[in-house]
Amino acid sequence: MFPQLPLELVHEIVHHILDSAPPRCDSQDLLGVTSKPSWVLIEPFTQSSRAFRLLCLESWFRRLYLRSALDILTIDQYFPALKSTWCRHFHCVQTKDPYKTIFAWDLSGFQQLSSLRVDWLSRKSTFRDDFTPFLNVESRILEVDIRGVKYPSPMVLKSLTCAFVHLVTLKLDFPRIWCGLCHTCILVRFPSPPPTSLKYEGGLGLPVHYSRALFSLNEIEEVIIRLPDFGFGLPSPGLSAHSNDNLWVGECDRCMSLMYDDEEFRKRWIARKRGLDSAGVRRDNTTPPRLKKVQWNFWQFDTRGDGTRLSRHETNSDEESLTDYDGDDREEGESNEAHEII
After folding, report:
1. What are phi and psi of 115, to 5 degrees?
2. What are phi and psi of 329, to 5 degrees?
3. What are the E-state strand segments in 187-269?
4. Cβ atoms < 10 Å from Cβ of 315
5. First to last CA, the chain
6. Which residues are CB-neighbours of 91 under 8 A, at least 6 positions away?
7. 296: exposed, middle or buried (Cβ count in 10 Å: 0-12, 13-18, 19+)
8. Which of 59, 63, 72 is nearest to 107 (CA)?
9. Cα–Cα dist 93/279, whole Å
10. Acidic residues: which segments have biased composition (predicted)?
11. φ and ψ at residue 239, rounded to 5 degrees
12. Bridge-partner residues for 16, per DSSP?
């Protein structure tokens, strides 16, 4: 009879299997899809003994994936240690809902969380002033990754982030971005040759109104923003693959083409983005106090729609994007999905 494997060794084996296994889905960009590997990889261990099963469950639920805020209410019934001990990363999905209902995610009881990702599939992207999507945050969540918000206004961004007071790194992956000149959420359209990335340091680089929305986050140091470039933009003075003279932070091509012809306005606007007033004196309370780095990354949108994760709604014209979607959120042939804890 073979000697029983030490539990420490089993623990390391399971961790190695889960960390090195390929994800279920080939594309990490797809929204609403878990990146966790298949359960069948460790299922044999769970059937060996009760001790092995507990070790496997602990490793499996280091990363938790939920498609319904209501599922949080049943976790303690089935997995009493999941919130308090096991879970380190939480991936939640605000699903499409024909009634446009948005439930708040109650994070009470999660004691070990350090990172969170939310995929915002709902086409409702405006909230009541008193609504907060995340409640009762008890652990020190240092990294938040927000994806898919259709209309990421400063008010929406503040609602999505204000609960994470210890936040250090914020990742944003949206189809649109806020233009601080026309105060709308716009599709990025760079002229050719476009930049593929922009990097700012020293507290610079956020849309002006985003800086104000995130100002209360005293520990935030890094913001990473990822956007599609739809191309064919109007001439944008000082912006290309090799130059960024005007410190681009989300302005639409129409505003830049029109307003930057006024040299005095252009200088005042750049000064404001630097946190300076008209006299060149630094303003107070213009950026989060510990912000060090803002990174913008762009990917080229394929106009043929081949291989893209954006639906027709995301690629509507800017004029159509100024108001919330008002129809049934389900795509043709889509059915209601069962709740699950993964």
Report:
1. -145, 155
2. -75, -10
3. 197-201, 222-229
4. 17
5. 35
6. 34, 35, 63, 64, 65, 66, 116, 117, 118, 119
7. buried
8. 72
9. 46
10. 317-335
11. -125, 120
12. none
Residue in the block written with tokens 């913001």: 223
**263 CB-contact burial (10 Å; exposed 0-12 / middle 13-18 / buried 19+):** exposed
Give the whole-angstrom CA distance, residue 9 versus residue 85: 20
Judged on CB neighbours under 10 Å (0-12, 13-18, 19+), 313 is: middle
Angle between helices 50-60 and 7-20 (to 10 degrees): 40
Residues of the chain with pLDDT under 70: 1-5, 7, 10-11, 14-18, 21, 23-28, 97-100, 124-129, 279-280, 284-285, 303-342
Q: The pTM is what?
A: 0.85
Q: In this structure, are residues 297 and 226 in contact, taking their beta carbons and an 8 Å threshold?
A: yes
Per-residue model confidence (pLDDT) at position 339: 46
| CA dihedral (203, 204, 205, 210) positive or negative | positive
Q: Which pair of tokens denotes residue 287?
A: 């950026």
The CB-side HSE value for 174 (13 A sphere, CA atoms) comes to 24
Instruction: Tell me which residue has tokens 């830049």.
Output: 256
Written as one string, the DSSP assignment of 299-337 is EE--TT-TT----TTTTS-TGGGGS---S--SPTT--PP
Residue (of 250, 269, 249) closest to 261 by Cα position: 269
Give the distance, in angstroms, between the CA of residue 93 and the centroid of all CA atoms in the same chain.
Answer: 11
The pLDDT score that the predictor gives to residue 307 is 46
The four Cα atoms 112, 170, 175, 237 give a dihedral, to 10 degrees, of: -170
The partner residues of 185 in beta bridges, in order of sequence, read: 178
- In the DSSP assignment, the letter for residue 241 is S
